[in-house]
């Protein structure tokens, strides 16, 4: 059931009995979204209609600001129950947002086990495997039999995020093997787990960046990935549901940066966020243009005497920019999904230049033909200059579109720092100055 | 271990014994990538070094063209073993690519069960749930006890894609409940499964588009999703690993289309593919510009007499385009990740216009100030006109950036059909004509 259906199914908000029935029957994520969209005062009322287990599930799906609001408006006992039941990774995310005083009070109320789990996760930097992991996983010692392992799994409480993979450690808690619940179920109980568990364990370190975690889980089709500390000791696992969200966030970031938008500026963002996130890019581009324009300004006389330039230049600028942004986009996305690395720079450049050459010739010829149509007979020579500059500009555009993001990546910077608008501005500056200089020189000979 | 490490670990390709050891030890996806990158003649040699179970796993990770090559170069017996062991959804994907003759021969060689499974999947349209699903899932009848269910799961062969969820059907094979292996393990054996299985079963129909499947699995954090036919009978399940790939593909498509790139034009594409995919967009933009330019051409005289326009117009065009592409990107991505629907059009438009107004004023004022710097004293009035047009152009840009993709979506077309370059060209045409007309009118009064 998608959110549209839920909006319809909760027709009459005034009917509290019906609402209570609906809210306890629907999926927690949908109820979370419904409650978040209510006016502030109604949120706590709706939340109190949930029975305990639904309340616990729904709470994890609420955005941190709504969680904070509820923490302030519910009874302390209820709050502690909710926070205690959260999985440690979600709790760490909430604590990041709450005022330090509230966090301190809540930490004191938690059970020792949950307090330690939260403290561990909060100890790692944001956007790393350590922060993303949960400490609720199944681990087994090497010496167990399959039967013992299965009954250990059954004895553990139901809190574990996944029981479908169990991680096998040696006496020093070092991660050595992994075994799936499926393997355990299909094996005779008296077999030793080390005989069936695989020693090809994929793992990440606590400081591994979240993008790398996501790429590894995607590549190897994993539903859980163990996290180890510097001594290779098992400290947590990351589950696929968190990774799906990260892959989508990373893609959104790439898209937004390419367009000169960033961060939390989604379709539903507050107008002030939108302004704060977009205006700086626009002003930066205008700033760059001041530089570019002071390079064009001396050519005002040239433009005056060859007015067809006013028609040709926008076409020139738009086409060159598009070529550059195409190469830029393909390179940034290729790096983003792990299809290419900086080692491929020359290979990609060779391919882009090969394709670029054909594009350059086609666009150059088209440019000459268009200029012929627009220009006065005595200005037709301008078309040939435009064609040549269009062609070279195309090659410059694909080279920069490939090389700049690769260079940033090699410097360990974000390749998407080169946004589309930045690329366009850069190409405009280079292209216009080349073009206008050539026209000036040509004017000398023709006049 | 990432692909870079593997390239290093397989140092000496000449040493076949070492290579054989490495290829059988590494992860199937890495071996698949390694083999795909070998020269054509070496691929079959490398593949023959794999032991049977590794060969079966690796084969599923090879791209269809390499699979086809191997099918032609391996012995028939081996081919049948490989194809028989593939999961039905991967096999359907391969059969899509193979010549009909080869498919027919292979289908005859398959076991009845696998042949039926493949035929079922091939019967559904591409990019739908039916095509994406596997028929290897666990299903239980309502009347079983937990103990009977567990021993049924254990008795089934190990082929099932996931055993972590079992789907409960009534006597007509209609899907009625779902139960997790975890629930089964934590319950006493004599309890009836219908007492613990949930009747809140999320499911999709065979014809549900793959984007919707992906959004549902992401939203509800599912690792498997059942697929039913029109009579609500269970016919297959979709697993999270397939969905992760789809989410990434959809994001890549959105990014590429925004930049005026499309389809298979990845960073590693063949130059001919790159040319074929990008050049049409470029020529289309040039074509549009012919229209736009014939609108600008009559103003050549105006530009001649006010040369500062040559400096102002590119800035004007680039900034207006960026504003439009920002709004466009946020809207397309919002629709892509299911954050907004066409019902939100007015809401988003209101927000974009609010933010746009502030942007318009800022950019307008900046434009006036910049024109003051560049223009001759007698041309300063141009700056005020430029400022006003810049401001109105900003509002037009955010309106079009929001409205066009929403409109396409409402017409059930792909909102990303409005690419960035198309947006820029459109805004240029509107902006230039407005600007130059206002300047012409003003010239009448001033001269």
UniProtKB/TrEMBL annotation, chains A, B:
<dbReference type="Pfam" id="PF00571">
    <property type="entry name" value="CBS"/>
</dbReference>
<dbReference type="Pfam" id="PF01769">
    <property type="entry name" value="MgtE"/>
</dbReference>
<comment type="function">
    <text>Acts as a magnesium transporter.</text>
</comment>
<dbReference type="InterPro" id="IPR038076">
    <property type="entry name" value="MgtE_N_sf"/>
</dbReference>
<feature type="domain" description="CBS">
    <location>
        <begin position="133"/>
        <end position="195"/>
    </location>
</feature>
<dbReference type="InterPro" id="IPR000644">
    <property type="entry name" value="CBS_dom"/>
</dbReference>
<dbReference type="InterPro" id="IPR036739">
    <property type="entry name" value="SLC41_membr_dom_sf"/>
</dbReference>
<comment type="subunit">
    <text>Homodimer.</text>
</comment>
<keyword id="KW-1003">Cell membrane</keyword>
<keyword id="KW-0479">Metal-binding</keyword>
<dbReference type="Pfam" id="PF03448">
    <property type="entry name" value="MgtE_N"/>
</dbReference>
<keyword id="KW-1133">Transmembrane helix</keyword>
<feature type="transmembrane region" description="Helical">
    <location>
        <begin position="425"/>
        <end position="446"/>
    </location>
</feature>
<keyword id="KW-0472">Membrane</keyword>
<feature type="domain" description="CBS">
    <location>
        <begin position="197"/>
        <end position="253"/>
    </location>
</feature>
<keyword id="KW-0813">Transport</keyword>
<dbReference type="GO" id="GO:0005886">
    <property type="term" value="C:plasma membrane"/>
</dbReference>
<feature type="transmembrane region" description="Helical">
    <location>
        <begin position="353"/>
        <end position="375"/>
    </location>
</feature>
<feature type="transmembrane region" description="Helical">
    <location>
        <begin position="381"/>
        <end position="404"/>
    </location>
</feature>
<comment type="similarity">
    <text>Belongs to the SLC41A transporter family.</text>
</comment>
<dbReference type="InterPro" id="IPR006668">
    <property type="entry name" value="Mg_transptr_MgtE_intracell_dom"/>
</dbReference>
<dbReference type="InterPro" id="IPR006667">
    <property type="entry name" value="SLC41_membr_dom"/>
</dbReference>
<protein>
    <recommendedName>
        <fullName>Magnesium transporter MgtE</fullName>
    </recommendedName>
</protein>
<keyword id="KW-0129">CBS domain</keyword>
<dbReference type="GO" id="GO:0015095">
    <property type="term" value="F:magnesium ion transmembrane transporter activity"/>
</dbReference>
<keyword id="KW-0460">Magnesium</keyword>
<keyword id="KW-0812">Transmembrane</keyword>
<dbReference type="InterPro" id="IPR006669">
    <property type="entry name" value="MgtE_transporter"/>
</dbReference>
<dbReference type="GO" id="GO:0046872">
    <property type="term" value="F:metal ion binding"/>
</dbReference>
<feature type="transmembrane region" description="Helical">
    <location>
        <begin position="281"/>
        <end position="303"/>
    </location>
</feature>
<dbReference type="InterPro" id="IPR046342">
    <property type="entry name" value="CBS_dom_sf"/>
</dbReference>
